[in-house]
Amino acid sequence: MKSLNLSRLAFALYLLIFFTYLMGPLLVMSLTAFNSPSFPSASPWECFTFEWFSVLWHDNHIREGIYYSVIIGIGTVVLSVSMGLAASIVLTQIWPRFRSAFYTMIIAPILIPGVVIGISTLVFWDRVGRLLGAGEGSALNGFFHNGLFLTILGQSSFIASYAMLVFVARLQRFDPGLTEAALDLGATHTQAFRKILLPFMRPAIASASVLAFLASFENYNTTTFTIVDYKTLTTVLAQKVRLGIDPSISALAFSIITLTVLAALAVEAFRRHSANRLAARLRGGAAGRLLSGFFRGNVPAVLLVLLSMAVIVTAGVAQRYDPTQCKVAVQAAKKAEIQRRIKALQESRKARESAAPATPAPKAPNANSGAFGNVFAPNNLPGAPGASQTAPAQESPSQKPGNGAFGNVFAPGNLSGASDAPDAAPDSPPARPDNGSGFGNVFDPNNLSGVSGGN
Amino acid sequence: MGSGVAVNLENVWIKFGDFVAVRDANVSINGGDFFSFLGPSGCGKTTILRAVSGFLSPSQGRVLIGGKDMAGIGPNRRPTALIFQNLALFPLMKVWENITFSMEVKGASAAERRKRADELLDMIALGGQGDKLPSELSGGQKQRVAIARALCASPDVLLLDEPLSALDLKLRQHMRTELRAIQQRVGITFIYITHDQGEALTMSDNVAVMKAGVIDQIGTGRDVYDLPSTAFVASFVGENNMFRGKILRIDGDSAQVDVAGIGPLVGRISPAASAQLDAGDEAMIFIRPEALAPGEGEAGRTLNATVVNEEFEGNAFTVYLDAGGNAEIRMSLANTGQHRIAERGSRMALHFPAGKAVVVPVGELASE
């Protein structure tokens, strides 16, 4: 009995860890979408805000990226589902003898790195274009170097294999006798395909389409080569990360998560609904009124409606909600905090000066709360001449707080080298507020620690 | 009948690589007949059916339907309809859509189809069930839907590939009668494939018995049962007692066979085999269990044996006897209220009427 409880506890713990591992990043990312600091962060919670959704909505790069991603996704779905279906029919019904060889051939694109597929797509269609005599600047040449065209072809070459795997699994349960029966009853081969095989494959076609669309939507490593002068969501995001991100990416992630959950609930609700209806019919009862019947014994449907309502209400609230006041309050709190610290510093300096000016203050140990204990901080390096002597007198705010996860290694004051520290320190406050640095100051410890914001 | 369309197979060979599935089949099926191919599984009977329906083309020979050579004509353009062993009802279509599929592919309107479906549903006693899915029907109902679907195509020839094998015994017996009744009502040619000799005998006008790709005998059920032409047919169709010996004398259509341990037995030579048998040849003589009766008979129609066992089967007793040598004898006696036939271990004389023993050349027996 006791061991049973223990194993149950262990199992619960395992589940907890597992789902934290799965869902944790998504949860944290979703939180950052509603927090006001301009670098995605969840932990110093400042102000609840919807502004990042608005930033996202007005970001033309992302909008264009989504637009092309959808176009490419649709093209890839059409191409890869039809190629996959054809391949699976050949594999299971027409050439069962060459099955294994054909299978290996079809499955190969999945095993080839996407980068290779991307480059080879580019090269191959360039060659094809030349072979067809497409000169520089001609319409045909433009077609074979069109980013959308190349990306759809490049992605389809391996997404079709995924689609085929889905189809083969379904086709293995197809009774070829059904096609024969249709032929026997006078159907042509086309009719037998359209009326018998295709309806049977419909669920597989639906799932392969979803799979293909998602695979296309999230693909980066092939797309980055084939996209040429267009952009997709993934390439835009990759670019953004390189240039500095803001929580509008979190807002995008949150939107995608919400849409996914809604779609999954909708699918499940309708599946449950038709199962219920079939069960009702088998019992011989009437199917019930359309709407009341839809929700009876259908948890996903109820959840779907609740969640949809929550989304609508939130969107409505977001129109009115204004976090300006909160922001002002946060700013004021920050200012006060800084004032307090400066004061504390000044007092401690005064106290030190009056007590024993000759004794070097034990500055490093108490000021450094960084994750790495400031081992990387230049002040701790033995070869930091003058740092210990001059620091007490100068105390630049950029060195002192040291709350950054990297022990301020990226702080501009530290980058400049320990020997210059005394000279650089006085200059750093004026340099900080202007955000002209290549990283948009995302690594600026003043932003991270949030204690020195003077504006 | 005579109103239906005749089917003829002329020197049909069907090979799959080196394997000969059907060897030189010559069959002529009269229009409006209920014709059965009977044989153990793997004997090539389904292959013949597929050649008639057009899913296979013979490696050699011709298939004629209504006197017309079917070479190069696909299954969808032949006047045949096939009822599959697993029925092959379209699982995603409703019953009425299943039934009228043949009209749908020819472009008939939904109203027209619905009307025809209702007629056929009434005929198969499933009125009002047209909107169900096949999965919601019972085995016998599915069976009838498959028949209605085939009949809806108004075929000249209906081909049935062991359609009753999946049903339980009671239903199977019921469907036999029903199939025969439907066939007589619509008057088209039925070609029926089965490994169940009971089905073949009860329903068919004519039966072809097949063994390993070869048709051994074609005839009425009575002919096949009473006058089998080979040892295989004799042992496959119904129960039989086999004795092996040397022909002593041939006297018109009867032969005297000397069976080791029993003595000479007189039997009728199977008409198909009369040319193959001569005095001095090895031969097999077959006597049905129900032809045997206790008691002394004429010379050559009597044998003595020891009772080994006795089984009561309700309508009949089966007595197992040992006649010496390796011949085990079964005797079947109708249950007329007798108490018991004989003491176990006792010696007993059996006799059989003239004409009830059949002499055929030595051949392979059905392995059961």
Kindly describe this structure.
The complex is a heterodimer of chains A (455) and B (368). With 455 residues, chain A is mostly helical. Chain A has three domains: 54-320, MetI-like (MetI-like fold); 325-355; 368-455, no CATH class. Helices cover 70% and strands 0% of the residues of chain A. Chain A is built from 20 helices and no strands. Chain A has helices spanning 2-32, 51-57, 60-94, 99-111, 114-131, 139-144, 147-171, 176-184, 189-218, 223-226, 233-243, 248-283, 290-295, 299-320, 324-355, 363-367, 387-394, 412-415, 421-431, 445-449. In chain A, helix 1 (2-32) crosses helix 12 (248-283), helix 4 packs across helix 7 (147-171) and helix 7 (147-171) crosses helix 9. Residues 361-371 and 381-455 of chain A have low confidence and may be disordered. Chain B is α+β, with helices and mostly antiparallel strands. Chain B folds into two domains: 7-226, P-loop containing nucleotide triphosphate hydrolases (Rossmann fold), CATH 3.40.50; 231-361, OB fold (Dihydrolipoamide Acetyltransferase, E2P). In chain B, helix 4 (110-123) packs across helix 5. In chain B, strand 11 (241-251) and strand 12 form a beta hairpin. The model of chain B has no long low-confidence stretch (mean pLDDT 87). Chain B starts with 6 loop residues before the first strand and ends in a 7-residue tail after the last strand. In chain B, the strands form four sheets. A six-stranded mixed β-sheet of chain B has the order 6-7-8-3-9-10, with helices on both faces. In chain B, strands 11-12-13-20-14 form a five-stranded mixed β-barrel. Chain B has a five-stranded antiparallel β-sheet with strand order 15-19-16-17-18, with no helix packed on it. The longest helix of chain B is centred in the middle third of the chain and has 18 residues, at 169-186.
